Each structure stands twice: as C-alpha cells, then as structure tokens.
Amino acid sequence: MTMMTFSTSRRGLLRGGSAGLLGLIAAPAVFTGRSAAADTTLTVTSWGGDYNKSVREVFADPFTAETGIKVTLVDNGDMAKVKAQVLGNAVQWDVIDAPAAFATSGARDKLWEPLDMAIIKPSALVSQPAPDYMPMYLYSGGLLWDAKRTPDGKHPVDFAGFYDFERFPGRRVMRSLASETLEVALVADGVAPKDLYPLDVERAFRALDRMKKHVTKWAATTPDQVNAVVQNEGDFSYSYFNRVKSAQKSGAALAFSFEQTVNSLDYFAVPKGTKNKEAAMRFIDFCLRADRQVAWAVRGYYLPNNVAAIDEVRKSPSGDFLPDLNNGKNVVVNSAWWGENYTAMQKRYAEWMLT
User: In degrees rounded to 5, what are phi and psi of residue 70?
Assistant: First the structure.
C-alpha cells in the first residue's frame, strides 16, 4: 500500500522530456577548518542526514578516486558564516551547496568567485549558469505526516489544508528559514502560485501569525522537519520527498503529498577568496557530468540539470516520484526575488519566531 498522495498529472513533465523543464527553469528568475595544502582537499557544505551520505557516495568519493583531492563535508548552511569568512579573508568552505535564496543573495553581496568556464565544461544544461553560481538540480517540498497516527482524510495534502486548523487539528512543525515558508503561507492564504511574486510580505506574516500558536517544533534543518514527525513532536510538516523516502527506508510510517509542492533550483557556488579555487571548479564540473547527475537524481528523487540525464531519470523507478511543474497548484521559486530580499526576510522571520 502506497504512502504517497499524487496529483493526477504530475508525470506530465517527465512524459514531455527535457523540453517542458527548459521552459520553466531555464532562468534563475523562476563548513571545519582545512589542514591540508591548497588544492589537495576541498571543504563542501552540505545539509545533513542521508543527504550527506548521498553527496559522499555520488559526488565526493568518486571525485577523490579520480583526482586524488579529498573532500570534507560540513553540515552547515549558514549564509551569515559564509559572509563572515569572505569579508574576514578567512575562507574555509570551498564549495557552497546553495538553495536559490542563498545563491542569488550571495551573488548580490559579491560573495562568490566567477565560475571558471575553462574548467567547467558541462554538456547541454537545462538551466544555464549565472556568472558566479551553477544550477545543479531541482528539488521539491511538500507536506508530510505519520500514516499510522493520522488516517486518510485526517491530514492536509495541500498548503491551504496545512493552514486549516479546524479541519485538520494537530501540531505543526515549521522550518526556521524564511524562503519557501513565505510562499507556503501566501498560497495557503489564497494567492495563486502564478501570482506569488513579488511576495506580499505583510500578507505572508499575517498568515504566519495565525500559524504560530499551532507550532510545536521549529526545525533548524531539513532532517529536523522529518524527525520531528517521526519522533511524535509534531503531526504535520513541510519538507522534501527525498528526506521522507529515506525515513521510510528506515521503517518510518511517513507519508508525503505531491498534491502541491514548492520547487526550487539548488546551486553550487565558490566563496570568494578560497585557496582551492581550481579544485572547487573541477568539483563542480565533475558533479555536472551526466553519469553523476543521473546517479544523484535517481538516488535523491531530483530533476537533474544535465539534459542528457533527464531521459535516464524518467525511465528509472525514481521517475514515479517527481513533481509535475505544469500543475498550476505547484510553486516554482523566483530566485531573483530572493536574491534581492533574502537577508531582510530572514532577519524579520527570525525576529518573528522569537516574539
């Protein structure tokens, strides 16, 4: 018996091949110290849990085997620390795994090295790079719950339901990160996904005000979002299908809804001032190779950015667990808006959580 809820047309993008994806995400508008000598080791930021394991097995270890360059993974997505390293001329993290808001706001603040396209020579890409950050894949977030504790019909499957506390009473888990959280709040409040940007920030925070008293867990990381439901600290949460799938493999009775999702590009960027710039560019090039993109997408249920990888992913079992970006209920994050507004929004959101 499946524990996922699917929209009826979510495979439309996969049936359409890479062309459908090209039109939707072709433009962005849509961390430990180092002990070895420069260019003999890389420190790459990551996002914890099974995600780290995937980065290690799909990207880091094969890169080391081919180049001899050791890769250290650091579970830290703190943009304030990245900025402090760059401005203090003390860069310790060589490649930043950056969601859209991080990548674009970092570019605005001039935190990234220009991409060296003499080293990074990918085959055809779905989404083209910015001068200083490279799109790697597209990921999807949606709602999750414990299927044993919450039977069918007693849980939300879309964002309006997540904010409907009378119809779906229960404890909410919320992320301590503004990006995507504001989008979910606005869609729940009745804003159509196609009309989201520029975000109506005041309306978003009014919706969040209604949510606050129902939150029993503020999750600092994406694994925390999932673990809070697994450990019965909350009933409903927003997180990512790959995290849910990993928990299911470990025996958790989690369910996930594809009825409505938030979809965003993830990028790699290189902090300005790294002593390992050439090795960092080589790592990005390696991760864009079709075989690595297929392995990454199949393992993590992502849409790859390498055009040649898309058909292979479509034919794999993972193709059954990918969102339909042509579904009008789904959100595609506008990374350009977040590039202009991330710092201010995250500051306001952090202050809001404490009030």
Answer: -75, 140
Note whether 98 and 342 are within 8 A (CB): no
Start-to-end C-alpha separation, the chain = 43
Percent helix, percent strand, percent coil in the chain, to nearest 5: 45, 20, 40
Find the mean pLDDT for residues 178-195: 97
CA distance 130 to 104: 9
SS3 83: helix
At 283-306, the pLDDT tens digits run: 999 999 999 999 999 998 999 999
Assigned token pair, 193: 């996904």
Q: What burial class does residue 90 get, using C-beta atoms within 10 Å of its C-beta: 0-12 exposed, 13-18 middle, 19+ buried?
A: exposed
Q: Which helix (H) or strand (E) holds 261?
A: none
pLDDT digits (tens, 9 = 90+) for 81-127: 999 999 999 999 999 999 998 999 999 999 999 999 999 999 899 99
DSSP string, 163-214: T-TTTS-S-EEEES-STTHHHHHHHHTT--GGG-PSP-HHHHHHHHHHHHTT
* Window from 11-25, 165-179, 209-223 with minimum mean pLDDT: 11-25
How far is the CA of 40 from the CAs of 31, 36, 75, 136, in angstroms?
17, 6, 20, 24
Residue 151's identity, in one-letter code, is: P
Q: In degrees, to the nearest 5, what angle opens at C-alpha 267 toward C-alphas 275 and 323? A: 160
Distance separating alpha carbons of residues 255 and 32, to the nearest angstrom: 35
Q: Could you tell me if 319 and 329 are in contact, meaning their C-beta atoms sit under 8 angstroms apart?
A: no
